[in-house]
Specification:
By secondary structure, the chain is mainly α. The protein is built from twelve helices and no strands. The two termini are 32 Å apart.
């Protein structure tokens, strides 16, 4: 049976990629427009990129977004490793399956439902402690960890299942303490899953809008929310530059993640 791709299939795939990425390409091109038009290309210029970097509010929102994404990735990765190990070592199959089902809920649940429910939870908790302005960085961090944590767990658990636990038990039998044995023996073997989950948490937190919209406060604004606020006014190419910056950052992270995964798979194949 021939594996040759037919011309119709190639055209079909090309149309799909054109439909997906043509709007992004147009946005990036118009971010270099010398004029203020968002539909007529008047010339090539870096004016709007310079205006973006001069915008103090945009730069502060960018800083807030990066800090939040780094904190979310770090917390989600640590909690995800602990949860994965706990679920993997659990002897109760019913408990393990039920916990895995609960883990999938934040991914399957519509983001607007998650955002509204978490906002109500934070406001209710603030009312219990008589605090009016409860929404801010801490609520955003908790909300982002909530929907990023399942991705770490689902990337780490398959690696744990592939690991030979006899190696860990042998290290413990030879006098190595359990935590040290885990760090020296288990951790290197599941590192590819950890890196994948960490990068996914970072990228998901970086570009999240819906959940952030409902759980952020006036004291802490992320870049997607700032871009959304610009759409209420006359759209200028500096917003295109902001959006292009986010797209390019996420694209770079995905490329790095794919390269790291490919190298890890080659190392495993050599072993």
């Amino acid at each position: 049976m021939s594996n040759k791709i037919s011309p119709i299939s190639r055209i079909y795939m090309a149309l799909i990629f054109l439909f997906l990425y043509a709007p992004i390409a147009v946005m990036i091109v118009f971010s270099f427009n010398s004029g203020s038009s968002t539909y007529i290309m008047e010339g090539f210029s870096l004016h709007w990129w310079e205006e973006m970097f001069k915008d103090a509010a945009a730069m502060q929102s960018l800083k807030n977004t990066v800090v939040l994404a780094l904190a979310t990735a770090a917390c989600s990765t640590v909690l995800g490793i602990m949860a994965s190990v706990g679920l993997f070592l659990s002897k109760n199959k019913i408990y393990r399956r039920s916990m895995m089902s609960v883990t999938n809920i934040p991914m399957m649940n519509p983001e607007i439902v998650t955002g509204i429910s978490m906002m109500l939870l934070f406001v209710f908790a603030g009312a219990l402690v008589h605090k009016s302005e409860v929404l801010g960085f801490s609520t955003l961090l908790i909300a982002h960890i909530t929907f990023c944590l399942p991705y770490v767990i689902l990337n780490v658990i398959p690696k744990l299942r592939q690991f030979d636990m006899n190696v860990y038990e042998a290290a413990v039998d030879l006098g190595c303490k359990p935590f040290k044995a885990f760090m020296k023996v288990v951790m290197p073997d599941i590192m590819s899953g950890i890196i994948t989950g960490c990068v996914m948490s970072f990228t998901l937190s970086l570009d999240d809008f819906i959940i952030s919209y409902f759980t952020n406060g006036p004291s802490f604004q992320t870049l997607p929310i700032y871009i959304f606020s610009l759409t209420k006014k006359r759209v200028k190419p500096d917003m295109f530059a902001l959006s292009a910056l986010m797209f390019l950052a996420i694209l770079a992270l995905l490329v790095i993640m794919n390269v790291a995964q490919a190298r890890a798979e080659r190392r495993e194949a050599k072993k």
